[in-house]
Amino acid sequence: MDYKFLDKVLDQIVSETEIDHERELIRYPYTHNLTSLPFQIHFPIYSHYLFLPFIKHCKDVYGLNEQEIDYVWNEYGKIIKDKINNGL
Predict the structure, then answer these.
(1) pLDDT in tens, 17-63
(2) pTM of the shown model
(3) How would you classify the pairing of strands 25-27 and 18-20?
(4) ω into residue 44 within 30 of 0, thus cis?
(5) Cross-strand bridge partners of residue 25
(6) Measured between alpha carbons, how far is 38 from 26 in angstroms, rounded to an integer?
C-alpha cells in the first residue's frame, strides 16, 4: 500500500468533513444527501449508514481497493472521534 497517497486521501476527506460542535452535527462529504447528522451517528464507527457510502466514494473518487479503504476508514474514524471529543 502507498501510505503516502492514502494519507493524502485521508487528509482530503477529513478536510471536507464539517463538524458543528455547537449543534453537535457532522456533514460527511461522502453521504449522498450531504445533510448534517448528529454526532451519535458516528458511533460506532462501523455504522453501515456511513461505511457503505464511504466505500463507494473511495472507489469512485480515489480508486482505492478494499484493503486501502479499510486503512483510510479506520484512520478517519480515529481522527473524527478525536475532533468530536476534543472540540477540534
Answers:
(1) 989 889 888 888 887 666 776 666 655 554 667 788 899 999 999 99
(2) 0.84
(3) antiparallel
(4) yes
(5) 20, 38
(6) 6
Q: Where are the beta strands (DSSP E) in the chain?
A: 18-20, 25-27, 36-38
Grid coordinates given for 44: 460506532
81 contacts 88 by C-beta, under 8 angstroms? no
Residue type, 35: T
Helix, strand, or coil here: 36? strand
What CA–CA distance (Å, rounded) separates 65 from 58?
8
Placement of cell 479503504 in the chain: 69
DSSP 24: T
Neighbours of 54 (CB within 10 A): 21
Structure-derived torsion over alpha carbons of residues 65, 66, 71, 72, reported in degrees to the nearest 10:
60
57: which 3 cell numbers? 466514494
